[in-house]
Design a protein that fits this description.
The protein is mainly α and 327 residues long. It has 13 helices and 2 strands; from the N terminus they run αββαααααααααααα. The longest helix is centred in the first third of the chain and has 37 residues. The relative contact order is 0.12.
């Protein structure tokens, strides 16, 4: 080994020593790090959410059939037409009816199943949860097609089974009767979305400390009283979450209605989604599409959904503040 050129002392290090960053630069880098991490998500949201929203607003101000670039500016005329169209308000009523019924029935059934399947002494509860959740992973469009085949009055097995059991004397056309079509949609919607509420409510039930039920049992509370005075108060935030998710999913229904009834018969099951689709693609409206009017109708419904959401959140916050003041 070659001798050191600096006897009696260690050789100087050949590694470069980087100068430390100034405190101001370090602070700026630290403060900008969250924005840098969120930049990819913000870019995707801008591309797939904000830009389509702004473009939809711009198109709603024009009379445009998408054939060529010919557009005529009509301002708020499309919105005025939406407000005066009775078929639009009929579709809004059907949408709110579907959402309200599916939320009310679905949450009630999901809560009952969640409490029932949360019993640790019950055998096979994992299999039952899987069977209830299985429809969720199936596309709503596929569900609509299959249910439509099953309820077909000529070839479907449902009417044939009912006639074999002497429940009815003739086939029932469930989807062509304006008195039954909405209830069929509601029943299928509840069945298809039941698993989501079940999973969330089950997670909420399992987060409740068992000590509370033990204390209620010591106080002499029955099983029903324990659920009323322990389960329901502790599950209130979870129930609020399930309610909000369910109502938003209910008012945005489209594929199930489109594949099962198409909005018929005679618009008896028409929802806002099928209404907008019909005008956007010229189905039953005329020879050409009316994309400007469809954009106005969809935007108006979006504003209505936003208003309902804000009202719900305001009522929920008011209720929480009232409880904090009284406690």
């Amino acid at each position: 080994m070659a001798a050191s050129r600096y006897p009696g002392s260690a050789a100087p290090s050949t590694k470069s020593i980087s100068a430390p960053l100034s405190p101001r630069l370090s602070t700026r880098l630290a403060s900008s790090q969250p924005y840098l991490l969120a930049a990819p998500a913000l870019a995707l949201m801008t591309l797939f959410l904000f830009y389509p929203l702004v473009e939809n607003l711009r198109i709603s101000l024009y009379d445009w059939n998408t054939l060529g670039d010919a557009k005529s500016f009509v301002g708020l005329a499309n919105f005025a037409h939406v407000l005066t169209d009775r078929f639009f308000w009929s579709a809004v009523g059907h949408t709110l009816w579907f959402a309200g019924a599916t939320v009310t029935i679905g949450m009630t059934v999901a809560f009952i199943f969640a409490v029932w399947l949360n019993n640790p002494r019950m055998r096979g509860r994992g299999i039952l949860r899987t069977l209830i959740f299985m429809p969720v992973v199936t596309s709503a469009a596929i569900v609509g097609i299959v249910i439509g085949k099953l309820l077909n009055p000529v070839f479907g097995p449902v009417s044939q089974i009912l006639m074999d059991l002497h429940v009815t004397q003739q086939p029932i056309d469930w989807l062509s009767d304006d008195h039954t079509v909405m209830w069929v949609l509601i029943a299928v919607g509840v069945w298809h979305g039941l698993g989501v509420g079940l999973v969330i409510l089950t997670a909420g039930l399992q987060s409740i400390p068992s000590d509370l039920y033990d204390a209620a049992a010591v106080d002499g509370a029955s099983g029903m009283q324990s659920h009323i005075h322990v389960t329901l108060p502790m599950m209130r935030p979870v129930l609020a979450t399930v309610f909000l998710l369910s109502i938003l999913g209910g008012v945005a229904v489209f594929d199930l209605v489109f594949t099962l009834t198409g909005g018929g018969p005679f618009f008896a099951s028409d929802v806002v989604g099928t209404y907008v689709y019909r005008y956007a693609f010229g189905l039953g409206v005329g020879e050409s599409t009316q994309i400007g009017y469809a954009s106005a109708a969809g935007l108006f419904m979006g504003i209505l959904i936003l208003a309902l959401t804000l009202i719900y959140l305001g009522v929920q916050r008011w209720s929480q503040n009232r409880e904090e003041m009284t406690s």
